Fold this protein.
Amino acid sequence: MRRLDRLLIHITDTSKLTAFYCGVLGMNQHGQNCFNYNDSEMSLCFKAGALGKYEAGANDLYWKIAISVPDLDLAYQQLIDQGVDISPPRQFRDVGYLTSVTDPEGFNIELIQHGFEGDSPLLPVNPELLGGGPCVNLLTLRYHNIDQVNRYCIDELGMRPLSVQPVEPYGFTLYFYAFTEEQPPDNDLTAIANRSWTYSRPYTVLEVQHLHEATEISHAKEGTSGYRGTVISGGPIKANNPLGLIENDE
């Protein structure tokens, strides 16, 4: 089966990555500057040599990754104890209970709880691990034409849609896709029940933020810091696609 295998990010300097991703977030390092928690999820792979510090834009193709945990309050306290600059978790509408941190190169990392604020943990909590048991659960990209994304992800790649989350006051809708045989608990993809279920998957899910009013999406310029693509393993894919999905990083 195909899977989201590696996120490719170009940065200026890799010297602080291990201390942050392994020492602070508790990931494992494998290969050269690649990090994740286990083999069922996507690896974060960084390459040094880019010119200029990363600066995020509201219409950038790449937005963030999200680490899901059974107990976000535990994760927050663990990071505070390490001196990490992090805001208290908050319940964002009916989307999720979340907060975020920034890595040494300026990339946003969301921390999201499986359940909503006040919910009992959906999975066992190991207090020795970040948030009781972390997973690189979401890769979040942005796009302005969701019909094009649906045709590519569902029809071309065979991904399964897991959840659709309208956030109308903010001008976007969130769409979630995965390479999986699992069925979400409710056939209505907008159902609240599908949200916590999606965040508790032990693999990486593709989240696409559909920007309702955007007419174009920004891509990182050659030679600068930023997103360079996501490697899909398990079968050939068309190179010309809206989300920067590729077969390899050669």
Observations:
- The first strand starts at residue 3 and ends at 10.
- The helical segments are 17-24, 72-81, 146-156, 193-199.
- The chain has one domain: 3-246.
- The chain has four helices and 14 strands.
